[in-house]
Design brief:
- The structure is a homodimer.
- The first copy, chain A, is built from 11 helices and 9 strands.
- Chain A is an alpha/beta fold.
- Chain A is globular and about 55 Å long.
- The longest helix of chain A has 16 residues, at 119-134.
- A 5-stranded parallel β-sheet of chain A has the order 1-9-6-7-8. A 4-stranded parallel β-sheet of chain A has the order 4-3-2-5, sandwiched between helices.
- The interface between A and B is medium-sized, with 24 and 24 residues.
């Protein structure tokens, strides 16, 4: 991989994290700060934040509800249910998610936890970068995927200007890229990328952190994302989901942006084992 | 996984090893002991030993030839060639392999390195168990797959009677199981198990070490081997090949044989990424 990318790579394997993704960090950091009289929380998620929140609320014996698009991965649905979440279906588009969530909140006494536009979530996700920097790899750059921006903005705060943070985004979901160019948040593109965890639009707090750091956003095509899943599978023997492969794909597509000693956060590994092994 | 198996499991991930399998250990230990006037080595392999030998000989600028069954995995063939091996086709059965190898040795000045029935290979493979024991997991048992017996006999020597070594074998390739029952080496069964690295028959030196230790051999069915590949993929996000999954499968099928704190050697991960990610 070092030869292919032309850099010394150091991987932070958040696919090995509890619930299979970095999302466990922000969820537990948030849930542990909730008042003890809260009985239920609700969020929206394509899967990983939902599973993380279900796991974290389970530690405090709270209930969790997750608004999930009907086209979400069945593997991720099962993962959320395994950790105790109650799923509520919504449509694929942003409007449907918002209306289903508001409807739920109007009828239930539940606390909404935003999946990324929340300082507690951002702080939790930033702990992955803190650990990466503490590992003494002498990094001069860190690459993270950007969807809503929880992981990315947490990384920027954790790096604190000492190490550059580069964001990787699917070309088909390049609202962070367009937002950085325009200087203001741009609307999300249709949720069609294979990187299902990165379909959401950049959050407000998240954007302000990316913008203040003048963050570079590098794009990855769908073909290169799939190729990166394969490379990591075959060369590193590590299972990552397409949303995690976006960083490897973006590095391969943008070699001029890659520094010498690069930390790479592999954000999650929640994909089913293909039928070939059945 | 701990809950499923009913034990505290500690995995030695030899799929993360150079060349993607534990075989790198025995190969490098052997090649570094060869006289410097040797220019070429030859072996027979379904893939992992061949790739390991090619990698190890490359360190000393020697040439490597590998006799490979025509039905060997194309992924493993490419892996061997990537490390510089020259492949020589043979049929699937033992007789064909032996005759092709003898024919090659009659015509070429090359040193034969047996894939497992060799003290240098066994000592090298044993280093995986030494590292596992040095990791201070307070193990009371180690499970390893058994095919030719290089890894298994190395583990037994490394454990030195302090920790029990249990061997896991595909039911369809249970010549080690039958050999232990009979008290003498039994012929190999037809090479049909999905665990392609374990189709070979138990070596002579290897059998003598297993027998002296009164080693238990636990069997795994094909269905459970495939299920174990899936479990490790989905729960641990780690890519293992079926030959490695045999230990997990055998533990699940033989719970009464499993101790409390169990070291498990995941022997390799040389499988192609399925087309789902193409």
């Amino acid at each position: 991989m070092n030869k292919l990318v032309g850099a010394d790579l150091f991987f932070k394997c958040e696919n090995f994290q509890k619930t299979g993704a970095f999302k466990a960090r922000g969820a537990v950091n948030t849930v542990l700060q909730l008042s003890s009289n809260i009985e239920s929380v609700v969020t929206h998620s394509s899967g990983n934040h939902g599973a993380a929140l279900a796991w974290a609320t389970g530690l405090r014996e709270m209930k969790s509800y997750v608004v999930v698009p009907t086209d979400a991965s069945s593997f991720k649905r099962r993962n959320m249910e395994r950790y105790g979440a109650t799923l509520i279906d919504c449509g694929q588009e942003l409007e449907s998610r918002v209306s289903v969530l508001q409807d739920f909140l109007a009828k239930h006494d539940a606390t909404f936890i935003h999946p990324y536009d929340d300082a507690r979530i951002i702080a939790g996700q930033g702990s992955a970068t803190i650990e990466l920097l503490e590992s003494e790899c002498n990094l001069d750059q860190i690459w993270v995927p950007v969807g809503g921006g929880g992981l990315a903005s947490g990384a920027i705060l954790a790096a604190n200007g000492n190490v550059e943070v580069v964001c990787a985004e699917p070309e088909l979901a390049r609202d962070a890229y367009l937002s950085m160019q325009a200087g203001c948040r741009q609307p999300p593109l249709p949720p069609v990328t294979i990187a299902d965890g990165l379909r959401s639009s950049l959050g407000e707090l998240n954007f302000s952190i990316l913008r203040a750091a003048k963050t570079t956003v590098a794009l990855a095509t769908e073909v290169s994302i799939k190729r990166a899943v394969r490379l990591v599978f075959e060369m590193m023997k590590v299972v990552i989901e397409p949303s995690a492969a976006v960083v490897v794909a973006a590095m391969l597509e943008n070699p001029s942006l890659v520094a010498n000693r690069v930390g790479t956060i592999l954000s999650g590994g929640n994909v089913p084992c293909p039928q070939q092994f059945d």
